[in-house]
Amino acid sequence: MEDDENLPLLEKLKLIDQLDKDEKNALLKMIDITISKKPMKDNFSNILDN
Predict the structure, then answer these.
(1) CA-only gyration radius of the chain, Å
(2) Which residue range forms the structural domain that includes residue 25?
(3) Mean pLDDT, to the nearest integer, of 19-32?
(4) Domain count across the chain
(5) Which conformational region is residue 6 in: left (phi greater than 0), alpha (psi within -120 to 50 degrees), or beta?
């Protein structure tokens, strides 16, 4: 099976999969927003550092 480290993540994914469509879409949108902010923050940091 998977490493013990990955089990909590797999359990979370199973729980997300059980959400209704609107709840799942809202959560996935928040995740996408969070992921997209990281590169933007890094780019601003690089600009300010130079």
Answers:
(1) 16
(2) 20-50
(3) 94
(4) 1
(5) alpha
